[in-house]
Amino acid sequence: MSVKVYVPREATARSLGADAVARSIAEEVARRGAAVEVVRNGSRGMFWLEPLVEVETGSGRFGYGQVQVRDVPELFASGFLRGETHRLSQGPVASIDYLKRQERLTCPRLGVVDPTSLQDYVAHGGGAGLRRALSLPPAEIVRQVTDSGLRGRGGAAFPTGIKWQTALQAPGERKYIVCNADEGDSGTFADRLLIEGDPFCLIEGMTIAGLAIGATRGYIYLRCEYPNAFDILNAAVAQAYQGGYLGADVLGSGRTFELEVRLGAGAYICGEETSLLESLEGKRGQVRFRPPLPAIEGLFKCPTIINNVITFASVPIILERGAAFYRDYGAGRSRGTLTIQLAGNVAHGGLIERAFGMSLRELLDDYGGGTFSGRPIRAVQVGGPLGAYWPPSKFDTPLDYETFAAAGGMIGHGGVVVFDDTVDMAAQARYAMEFCAIESCGKCTPCRIGSTRGVEVIDRLIGASPVPDGYSGADSQEVLLRELCDTMQYGSLCALGGLIPLPVLSALDHFSEDFHQSNRHRVSRS
Amino acid sequence: MTDSRKRVPIPIKVAPAGDLPPDQRGVVLDSVQKHRSLEGALLPILHAIQERLGWIPTAAVPLIAFELNISRAEVHGVLTFYHYFRQRPPGTHTIYMCRAEACQALGAHGLEAHAQQVLGTKFHERSADGRISLEPVYCLGNCAMGPSLLIDRQLYSRVTAERFDEIVAALSGETAAERSTASAVGAR
Hints:
The complex is a heterodimer.
Chain A (H helix, E strand, L loop, with lengths): L2 E4 L4 H5 L2 H15 L3 E4 L13 E5 L2 E5 L7 H6 L11 E4 L4 H4 L17 H6 L4 H7 L3 H11 L11 H10 L6 E6 L8 H8 L1 H15 L3 E6 L4 H16 L15 E6 L9 H8 L23 E5 H13 L1 H5 L2 E2 L2 E2 L1 E8 L5 E6 L4 H9 L8 E6 L6 E2 L10 H6 L8 E6 L4 H15 L5 H17 L11 H19 L3 H5 L1 H10 L16
Parallel strand pairs in A: 1-2, 6-7, 6-9, 7-8, 12-16
Antiparallel strand pairs in A: 1-3, 3-4, 4-5, 10-11, 12-13, 14-15, 14-16
Chain B lengths: L21 H14 L6 H12 L7 H8 L3 H10 L11 E6 L2 H4 L3 H12 L5 E2 L5 E6 L11 E3 L2 E3 L4 H11 L7 H4 L6
Parallel strand pairs in B: 1-3
Antiparallel strand pairs in B: 1-4, 2-3, 4-5
């Protein structure tokens, strides 16, 4: 029997040389005539160890971190095919602290399986949720999802079961399942990792959704910034068709579910669900007024379930293990697990799937390993570009939807971006407004115009541009900025304009010293 | 009842986008043909055109509109809404540079300035020699290993100013032999 060696084909690992390492291992294998199969798996989500090469031995999988081509001959010489120790050794991968302290309910196969092998997926427990769903009436599938307490992981945290129930009850011959894989928030990559590591899990979750509401067609709207994920996802969809998981007769049940991958085109706003639907229809990605809800009138005016990648990927295990199993994890009204993405200036960035309720400090201390630059942490932004900046004094806030919102922030898609003490928080606030101006769909005035005015007011506030006659100095500019944020928050049509005040005002409230003109000369960007 | 109305042929010959060069016309028609039966076909069509031509000529707009039986305004509206679609030919290589927060936390701001200076260009434009286009992008999903670039579908991590210069040199063919190893420089 041949030994299996795993080298990730995930984008970050590839950017650090995984392809060359995989080639080099294959060449060395050929030279030595060894019986070795090189498998391209997904990433485990421990980026600082990439390329993380794993070897399957009788006593589990052994990891070797940060492997480069020049290390390959040495690895062979030191007996890595038997899992023997080398200076790059990480020991048994499952025992690495970072992984051991996680609760991978949604991502148990991440980095374990070959993402383009349906056989591998099934061998690792995939497909069980779908088989169970096929034996249940639609209302019962929906009830399982409702009872599990699962809420939308894209950011809005809307109860998934209620959305599905609405779509189930909505009259209509034709219904759609749409996956929002337009993961545009900076600091987030869970959708990408799942698609590049375990795409069949997403396909299975969407198929279950199709069975639940009687939809026979689904779309995955993937951002075009993820070419590697696009290739892997298309390969997986093709395999799923071949293996009978998709198509006119899903697993011999006589039920139909067709699935197609569509590419976005670099518009952040298309991560907003109604804007995404417009884009899928071939139009400008402009936000729609609600009501009607997409569950009642969504894609092509048909009842549509639109959920994030992680939401759909959480469904198979709920069906397989039952609603109670999933609901037992979590805190308060946030049930199950959160896929946290630790990013930015951090030594040990990556994916951390844990039950809701862990504090920011626990996350940063137990997983982060300090900043990449080695300097102290000054701020973290949670929830992407629309999320609040947090000072260390608030790091004890637990990560659950309600507590986090009550403390003045939002969890969003679970991205946590770390900044060290060189960060200029006034510049971050200005960037938030600038980003909103670039990415606004233009439909509502507070967002379209407010964002541009926001950049100008911040420039005047920090003394980067002159204050016009008749206005008296910095105080008045701060009042103006707060009023503008109020207008944007309550007057915008969607979350882009509505939440941009969050990073702006949290920066102003917690890091006001960076906005004082007398301090500006000390603040410098690296 | 139709007999009572005389059919009058309208003496207008519709030939949209007559000024589109034949090779581009072929690509546009082929892309339309391949995808027109899809639901919401316009984005897949525009993607197909840009994938083959590298850009979407403004002169193609009337042809796409005619083929899909929608207005030119609709095609123009979609084409100009999405940042990814270009209406000018790009350089041989396009560097997508992440400007978003996670990369900012690792010095993306400085890298932006460096890149613009080295290439002698601003964002959305081509380098002085016309070979390299520089485009801003808001997140490549490589947020723990920034600053990040995406070039020719290949992601680059931990891009410092020095590393950027190496990458550009490799793209420019000055050190073609090094190109294959350029992506292998890790975080160490």
